[in-house]
Automatic annotation (TrEMBL):
PANTHER family: CELL DIVISION PROTEIN KINASE (PTHR24056), CYCLIN-DEPENDENT KINASE 2 (PTHR24056:SF254)
Name of protein: cyclin-dependent kinase
InterPro entries: CDK (IPR050108), Kinase-like_dom_sf (IPR011009), Prot_kinase_dom (IPR000719), Protein_kinase_ATP_BS (IPR017441), Ser/Thr_kinase_AS (IPR008271)
Any one of the GO CC terms: nucleus
């Protein structure tokens, strides 16, 4: 680590701290993600190994943050692992707070052109992950990095990522920050697939348009109730098998509200895309590949991407 000069802490999450640093050998500004663990009791943390292996698989896409290297330091019976990443000057949460803030309303000051660009890049990155058999499982604005000057968006933080296969295995339901967690996961389904990432993409889409979260629950129950109040309480007709999910109960029976009232700045094509991202039935939820072909993106110059 003598090769790097730390310039300050830029973030801290569940699995470690992130620092802005300068590579003394090249002068390049990088991001250092540190994870400290006890050698004797834990070994190399699974989240570190998983993130490294998944990033190696996904590294060829410009919409995935680039891993530049791995460093480790031994100190008094402990190892400090540092993942060295390309530096991005903000995450999407900070970007929205600075550039899209319109407090007290359901609208954003971000231009629709910028929203379309970020959403297209996000779908490109998610499609790349899914094409290579990887579920991210923790998509949220804080895990999407932004180059403000170039308008680039890249997916980061694969600590909860997972390679998947067909037929689907049973996975943990302790995934995805609550506000972006798909209803099938909230209801206890452990055989979920790529559709859980697409639900999160829908929540991020709405947040870009509103400058605030769409479903800001503070518990799993409240999260479900927020979802049901807007989209209507799901039925067996709309979502076959929902009543058999482990955590299904007799919830209040709401009818779907007008989603346009929640995101008034979106045109009909935007509402259509958002509605297809936020479908209850995971098998009918739009895929990242299909989303890229949605008419909402027709006005974009796709040659730039």
């Amino acid at each position: 680590m003598d090769n790097y000069e730390k310039l300050g802490k830029i973030g801290e999450g569940t699995y470690g701290k992130v620092y802005k640093a300068r590579d003394k050998r090249t002068g390049r500004i990088v991001a250092l993600k540190k994870s400290r663990i006890e050698i004797e009791t834990q070994g190399v943390p699974s989240t570190v190994l998983r993130e490294i292996s998944l990033l190696q698989v996904l590294s060829q896409s410009i919409y995935i943050v680039k891993l530049l290297g791995v460093e480790q330091i031994h100190r008094r019976g402990k190892i400090e692992f540092y993942l060295v990443f390309e530096y991005m000057d903000a995450d999407l949460k900070k970007y929205i707070d600075i550039n899209g803030c319109n407090r007290g309303t359901a609208s954003s000051t971000l231009s629709i052109k910028r929203i379309k660009s970020f959403m297209y890049q996000l779908c490109k990155g998610v499609a790349h992950c899914h094409r290579h058999g990887v579920l991210h499982r923790d998509l949220k604005p804080q895990n999407l990095l932004i180059d403000s000057e170039k308008g680039l968006l890249k997916i980061a933080d694969f600590g909860l990522g997972r390679a998947f296969s067909v037929p689907l295995k049973s996975y943990t339901h302790e995934i995805v920050t609550l506000w972006y967690r798909a209803p099938e996961v909230l209801l206890g389904d452990t055989h979920y697939s790529t559709s859980v990432d697409m639900w999160a993409v829908g929540c991020i889409f709405a947040e870009l348009c509103r400058s605030r979260p769409l479903f800001p629950g503070d518990s799993e129950l409240q999260q479900l109730l927020y979802i049901f109040e807007l989209l209507g309480t799901p039925t067996e007709d709309a979502w076959p098998g929902v009543y058999k999910l482990r955590d299904w109960h007799d919830y209040p029976e709401w009818k779907s509200a007008d989603i346009h009232e929640a995101v008034p700045d979106l045109d009909d094509m935007g509402i259509n895309l958002l509605s297809n991202l936020l479908l209850f039935n995971p098998s009918r939820r739009i895929s990242a590949k299909a989303a890229l072909q949605h008419p909402f993106f027709d006005e974009l110059d796709k040659s730039q991407y």
